[in-house]
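hiii, so i know i said id send this last week but things got crazy w the move. better late than never?? heres the sequnce for the chain we talked about at the cafe, plus the structure i predicted for it. fair warning i was half asleep when i ran it
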Amino acid sequence: MSGHSSWAGVKRQVREAHPEVSDAEWVARRQVARTATEAYVLGHHLR
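okay and structure toks below
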């Protein structure tokens, strides 16, 4: 083991581990995560 993993390699391993999840669902999950992160960052200054 080299101690380092490429992000593309990690994403490939996740997709191989979960073949039941369609590409459309991966896109939807990524958008939900992006929206949640953006809401957190934008709302952080309101605390």
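btw Residues 28 and 34 are 10 Å apart (CA to CA). thought thatd interest u
miss u guys!!
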